[in-house]
Fold this protein.
Amino acid sequence: MFIIGHRGAAGLAPENTILGIKTAVENRADAIEFDVRVTADKKLVLCHDDTFLRIAGKSDRVRDLSLNQIRKIETNSGEPIPTLEEAIKAAGKTPLVIEGKSDDWARPLANILKTHKTESPRVISYNHRELFLFSELMPGIDTFAIENHHPIEAMLLAKNLRFTGVSLAAWLYNPIVYHLSKKYKLELITSPLNPRWRIRLFHFLYPRAMITTDFPDRVINHNLRRRRKRK
């Protein structure tokens, strides 16, 4: 079972923060997912929404502020908003799953990954045009098209654009979708699954899929118990 910590470990620590990333590392997540957006001065910071309203009570858009301005924002959690470079350092050897959220993230992300080496990164996005640009700039890095409504169309697009795979909402999975992913040789990532029973059932039905969760500790502890029983 391959477990990806969602937005770091969003059920255990503030999302998209260094604390969240370190929490995912401590809980032995196989990879760590987070979101990046482009600032006014073309830096990449970790932030899911296009504004800071939810995490800091400020309606400013990420793309309208410089990195220095963003550094001064006091978030509700008290955790600072990190840059991608800081996130890479915090993750250490744990692989990253980086979601590009804005319309112009491909070139800044490619430039950073050229100079800041990280273990087996994966890049995912709803913006398939920008994802294709990134794949042209960095052909050696795995790319995944995100889709919440039309899984078969997403797989055909991923196959035609030579993406590594697709990141599908969990409710889109069924035997036909799973069979086609194998036929097209596409890797799979799920949207977040949190209840233990759902994670176990999903893994039983679709063992090739990488599972995203806000609570990596639940799954890792379950895996450790199973290993002890086998011994």
